[in-house]
Structures are given as structure tokens and as C-alpha cells.
């Protein structure tokens, strides 16, 4: 039950235990930063062989050994009071401060862990689920998908005794959010705290007001239940399965819980807000060396972004079928390919482009502005994250290329092209809404908000429509924006003056990137740990002047986005020498700080000019060559599950050449 819900968004943090000990030794010599806080999360501590959650259960001997060893390694156990005072600037934490949390409230904690806590004077946050505490002694507790005996859970008297000892702070783990609820029409059970409940009878989802009211009522009820039994109202909220969003965080704070705890990657700092603190989750096979390695990687700022990405770029248009049975078969085929390919990252299409003109006519999630072709994105995203080895899933979305229904007045607020003839770089080919139209931006923001609340994902990939050519945008709204910025509105004259051209290009580039990152920040309300990627045309990397053609900047993209996916597609670019084409891109990227760490080299699996697949062996040779030149992240597009292209046997072998290790 637990691992099923942990894996989709946060299982990546568990795999960080492979950091090298040379990094650990180096970090040990550095001066301790007392604002850096480590949080470790435990679940079941028992000597029973039939633990309730075996994957996350450790023995009392393991627990005591880890506590003792952490102290010997210089860690100082701190309390919630100390953390809150340090956050307010009223207290200085000791070196290497560490907070222990224990989830769920199993009776075994009292029997096996509490004696260790008291003897070693270790402050602990024990997060409990109110609905598991309320049944009487002879009743059963609804524990996920099974019923367990009430005596498997702590009694009220045990909780009160531990609280009064001063070493155990009782936190909230919700009243009844520690389970799954119906998350889509296909029947997936998804974490209750972050899922909009689907109603099969009305074929609709919980609205914003109902969702917020449900979460508020649950957290408030847990506080009330605890207080009614002599337990202080919690100051710490530990999210079930680590799932949260900024709305749940705000609700928790409103109910007196300024600290909320997640399962995200990364270091914690007591000088920063405490409303979504990251922690390390202990598994039954976590050794002390593993734990120390994980702590050090976080202190050094390493997280899953520092892991090589092997990326499958997927069209949901391939998976969609009017027949639900066939659609499920298509999905099953895709999942099998993902497992066989051994990719760890997926770019997943969230929009639909049935006429293949590059602009979104429909989407695959409920929204207010466009027809929904099928409620499919949630289903596929969840299945990929819960049934495959993928640790990072990006929603692939247009920035501007939205073909709104003609009934929407904003559909007329489009990018206007001034050009006498068509060439590859002058005619971008996409029907796009103008980024200079406030009304268009508002609609796009609404589409992204609807995406954010509809599914779980942890990245956003902006489509290659994040561009304006050197003949765009000449719409009235754009001209007004140029004038307000002190730029000439005589675009013909601008194109003849290099200095003016550079100013105009920089203005448009900033407009595009500012808007994209604004949308990403908006998505973080629903997906707090979201990372960003954007597609970039190869010519921008090969020819600096081409920045003027596309309003794209490699240097700026590397600085502002987490990842830049360069479309390294020589057949599309009609490159005469493929080897030189790739080498030139790699060499250009290498000129920038962290260029290789932030660049994805996206290969083409189909030659669109001939409509013939690029041979799998050729693709594999290219990947191998890119790795040899220092490339860290490689993607390919498109994946064709029906033609079994590219061949997963061939691609897996070459992907395996790049180990899944963290790179500092």
C-alpha cells in the first residue's frame, strides 16, 4: 500500500543512496552549516517477522544502532521547539542538526522505539492518523485496503504518556487521508490529499471549493480528535505518502501547523520557510553508510536533477483510441516498452494534435477552454509512475500553440507574421496565440492551472512553439508592447539594423521565457517539486545569429530552465554531415557552465522528410557517441509502440552504458 503511492512522485529520492564516499569525505571536511537540517523518516520499528509494511520496517536493534551511530558521526538530535525558534532567529541550532520523524502510530513504537528514545534523549515527531485511533479495543482499523486489529495501533494512554515525557511530539498524519480515492474514470486509486475525487455517477471531478473544504475538514478533525483525548494540537503535519500541494500547506498552516514534512529531495534550511521540509525515508535495507551518503548528497545540493536522464518522448495521440478496450491494450503495450527500454524519464504529451499541424486542438485532461479528446493524461501518467521504473515524468505542453474554438474571442489574438516568402526559419508553421495579448495569456494560464490539478507529474516540457521568428510578432498587442518598451514598431527597419534587431530579439526572448517560467511557477501550486525543460531548435546551438530567427537563446535557456532539450535532429535540419552536426552542438554546449548537465540531446526516431524510421542501430550508435563526447542526458522522439520502434533491445543496451548515478 505505502510503496504503491510513494513511487509515482518520490521514489526517486530513495535511490540517491549511491553517492560516492569520496564526496562524503570531502563534505566532512567542510565547515558545518547549522542552518542545514536533516530529517529522517521511519515507519514501523518491530521485531515481528510479519510487519505491517515490511519494506519500511526495521528491527529495534537497527533503530538503536542508527541512533547511536548518527550521534557518533556528529549529528545532534533537535526538537520542534528548537527548529521553530531557530527559524525565528531566536536560537542557534547545534552543528549537524537532525530531526527524527515516525509515521502512522503503530503500537510497536511504544514497545520498541520509545525506550530507545527516552534512554538516548532523542526528540521525535510521531505523526498519527486520527481515524486509526478512534476505534474501540475490540474493533478493527481500516488500514488501507485491509483491516487490522486495534491493538496494532497506539492507545490514547500510550500517546499521552509519550507526549508528557517531553521526548515525543505528536504530529498530524491526517484524520483520514492515508488511503487512496478514485482519481479518474479508469478506476485508479490515488492519494486522497492531492487527488480531485472523481464521481462516476456524474462523470465529474471535485471542484476547487469542495476539494479545499474536504482537506480543511479532515485536518481540523484530526486536531480536534487529538485535543479531545488530551493531546496537544499538532504543530507538525506529515503528509501521507509525502503527497502535498501549496493549498494543503496553506490549510495546515491555518490550522496551526507551520511545519509540514514531505518526501522531496534536497537539503532543508531552518532559515527558510518550514512549510514543506524534505526528508529521507528509511527502508528495511538502509545501512548506516547508505544513510550517511544520502545525507551528504542532499547537503551538497544533489538531487534527482543530477542523475543522467534516459528519456522516451511519448505521443498520447498514439495511445488514444475511441474504443476503451483497445486504448487499454495500447497503454499496456506502451508500459511494456518503457520497462523494456529501461528509460528513467518520460516526456508525456498532455495535448492532442490530430491534424499534426503542431498546434493543440484538444487536450487529454478536463479543462475550461478546449475540447477534451479523452480523460487520458491522468491515467497514463499514473500507470507509468506506479508500474514502471520511471522516476520523473514531464507533462509536454505547448506554450502558445493553442487552436481555441472559434467561439472564444481570444482565438483571434494570434501571432501575426510579416513576410513576403516562406522559408524554414521565417515560417514557424504554428498557429499561436500572441504572448502580448493579456486575454490570451489569461486563457493559457487557465489551461495550465487545469492541467496542474488534474494529475500528478514532476516536470513540464515546453513544446517547440516557444518561439517567434524575425518576422513575428506584428500583432497590434505586440506592437503596443514594443512601443511601451521603447522599441521601434517599424519592423522592416528593425530587421535592417543589427543593433535594433538584437534589442528586439532580446525583448521577445525574455517575453517567451518569462511567460513560460511564470506558468511553471503557477504549476508549482499543484506540483511543488516541478522542474522545467524546453525544446530548443538545433540552429540556435549551431549558429548564434539564428537566435534572431527564433527568439531563442541557448545561453539564457541554460540559465533559466532546469533543462534545455535541443532537437538534435540532422535529418530535419538536412545536415550534410551528421557526425559533425552532433559534435558541433556538443562543443557549443560545453562552452557554458554546467552546459552538459543541463542539456538534453533529443534525437529523431523518424525522418519526417521521407516518413521513414531512423534505424535503431543508427540511433544507438549516436547515443553511444554522444555519451563518449560527454553528453549526460539523451532523449528520442517519437516512440512508436505499434512498429516497435526504436527497438528496445538495442536501445536498452546503449542506455545502460550511462549508469544511473548522481553527478556532482
Give structural notes.
The chain is α/β, with parallel strands linked by helices and 664 residues long. The chain contains 24 helices and 29 strands. The strands form nine sheets. It has an eight-stranded parallel beta barrel, surrounded by four helices. Strand 5, helix 5 (107-120) and strand 6 (124-128) form a beta-alpha-beta unit. The two termini are 34 Å apart. The model is unreliable at 8-32 (pLDDT under 50).
Distance between the termini: 34 Å
Q: What would the principal axes of the Cα set say about the shape?
A: globular
Let me know the largest β-sheet.
Answer: 8 strands, parallel, barrel
Helix content: 25-40%
How many β-strand runs? 29
Structural class: alpha/beta
Question: What's the helix count?
Answer: 24
Looking across the biggest beta sheet, what order are the strands in?
Answer: 18-19-22-23-24-25-26-29
Mean pLDDT: 93
The rounded Rg comes to: 26 Å
Q: Report the portion of residues in β strands.
A: 15-25%
* Unreliable sequence segments: 8-32
Amino acid at each position: 500500500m505505502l510503496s504503491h503511492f510513494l513511487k509515482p512522485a518520490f521514489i526517486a529520492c530513495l535511490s540517491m543512496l549511491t553517492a560516492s564516499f569520496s564526496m562524503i569525505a570531502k563534505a566532512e571536511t567542510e565547515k558545518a552549516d547549522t542552518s542545514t537540517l536533516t530529517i529522517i523518516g521511519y515507519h514501523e520499528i518491530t521485531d515481528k517477522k510479519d510487519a505491517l509494511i515490511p519494506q519500511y520496517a526495521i528491527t529495534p536493534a537497527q533503530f538503536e544502532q542508527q541512533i547511536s551511530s548518527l550521534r557518533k558521526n556528529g549529528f545532534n538530535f533537535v526538537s520542534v521547539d528548537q527548529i521553530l525558534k531557530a527559524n525565528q532567529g531566536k536560537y542557534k541550532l547545534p552543528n549537524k542538526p537532525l530531526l527524527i520523524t515516525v509515521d502512522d502510530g503503530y503500537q510497536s513504537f511504544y514497545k520498541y522505539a520509545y525506550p530507545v528514545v527516552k534512554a538516548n534523549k532523542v526528540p521525535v515527531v510521531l505523526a498519527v492518523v486520527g481515524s486509526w485511533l478512534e476505534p474501540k479495543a475490540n474493533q478493527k482499523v481500516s488500514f488501507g485496503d485491509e483491516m487490522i486489529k486495534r491493538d496494532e495501533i497506539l492507545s490514547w494512554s500510550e500517546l499521552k504518556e509519550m507526549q508528557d515525557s517531553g521526548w515525543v511530539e505528536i504530529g498530524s498524519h491526517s484524520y483520514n487521508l492515508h488511503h487512496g480515492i478514485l482519481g479518474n474514470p479508469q478506476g485508479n486509486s490515488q492519494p486522497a490529499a492531492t487527488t480531485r475525487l472523481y464521481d462516476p455517477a456524474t462523470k465529474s471531478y471535485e471542484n476547487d471549493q469542495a476539494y479545499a473544504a474536504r482537506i480543511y475538514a479532515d485536518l481540523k478533525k484530526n486536531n480536534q480528535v487529538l485535543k479531545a483525548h488530551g493531546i496537544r494540537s499538532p504543530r507538525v503535519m506529515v503528509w501521507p505518502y509525502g503527497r502535498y500541494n501549496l493549498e494543503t500547506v496553506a490549510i495546515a498552516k491555518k490550522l496551526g501547523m507551520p511545519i509540514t514534512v514531505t518526501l522531496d529531495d534536497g537539503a532543508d534550511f531552518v532559515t527558510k520557510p518550514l512549510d514543506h521540509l524534505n526528508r529521507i525515508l528509511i527502508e528495511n535495507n538502509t545501512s548506516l553508510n547508505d544513510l550517511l551518503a544520502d545525507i551528504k548528497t542532499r547537503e551538497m545540493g544533489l538531487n534527482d536533477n543530477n542523475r543522467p536522464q534516459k528519456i522516451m518522448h511519448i505521443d498520447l495521440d498514439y495511445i488514444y483510441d475511441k474504443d476503451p478496450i483497445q486504448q487499454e491494450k495500447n497503454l499496456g503495450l506502451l508500459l511494456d516498452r518503457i520497462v523494456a527500454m529501461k528509460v528513467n524519464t518520460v516526456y508525456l504529451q498532455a495535448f492532442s494534435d490530430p491534424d499534426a499541424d503542431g498546434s493543440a486542438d484538444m487536450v487529454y485532461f478536463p479543462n475550461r477552454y478546449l475540447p477534451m479528446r479523452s480523460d487520458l493524461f491522468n491515467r497514463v501518467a499514473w500507470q507509468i509512475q506506479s508500474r514502471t521504473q520511471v522516476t520523473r515524468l514531464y507533462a509536454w505542453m505547448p506554450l502558445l500553440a493553442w487552436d481555441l474554438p472559434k467561439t472564444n474571442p481570444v482565438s483571434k489574438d494570434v501571432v501575426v507574421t510579416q513576410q513576403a516568402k516562406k522559408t524554414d526559419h521565417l515560417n514557424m508553421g504554428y498557429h499561436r496565440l500572441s504572448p502580448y495579448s493579456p486575454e490570451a495569456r489569461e486563457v493559457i494560464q487557465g489551461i495550465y492551472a487545469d492541467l496542474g490539478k488534474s494529475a500528478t507529474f514532476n516536470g513540464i516540457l515546453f513544446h517547440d512553439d516557444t518561439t517567434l521568428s524575425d518576422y513575428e510578432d506584428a500583432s497590434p498587442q505586440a506592437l503596443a508592447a514594443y512601443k511601451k518598451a521603447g522599441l521601434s514598431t517599424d519592423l522592416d527597419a528593425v530587421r535592417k539594423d543589427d543593433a535594433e534587431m538584437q534589442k528586439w530579439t532580446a525583448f521577445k526572448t525574455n517575453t517567451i521565457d518569462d511567460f513560460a517560467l511564470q506558468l511553471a511557477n503557477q504549476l508549482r501550486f499543484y506540483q511543488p517539486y516541478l522542474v522545467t525543460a524546453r525544446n530548443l531548435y538545433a540552429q540556435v546551438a549551431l549558429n548564434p545569429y539564428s537566435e534572431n530567427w527564433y527568439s531563442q537563446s541557448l545561453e539564457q535557456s541554460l540559465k533559466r530552465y532546469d533543462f534545455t532539450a535541443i532537437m538534435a535532429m540532422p535529418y530535419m535540419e538536412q545536415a550534410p554531415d551528421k557526425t559533425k552536426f552532433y559534435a558541433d552542438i556538443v562543443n557549443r554546449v560545453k562552452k557554458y557552465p554546467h552546459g552538459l548537465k543541463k542539456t538534453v540531446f533529443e534525437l529523431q526516431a523518424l525522418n519526417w522528410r521521407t516518413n521513414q524510421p531512423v534505424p535503431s542501430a543508427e540511433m544507438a550508435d549516436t547515443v553511444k557517441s554522444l555519451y563518449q563526447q560527454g553528453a549526460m542526458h539523451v532523449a528520442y522522439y517519437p516512440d512508436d509502440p505499434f512498429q516497435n520502434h526504436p527497438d528496445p533491445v538495442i536501445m536498452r543496451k546503449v542506455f545502460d552504458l550511462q549508469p544511473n548515478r548522481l553527478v556532482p
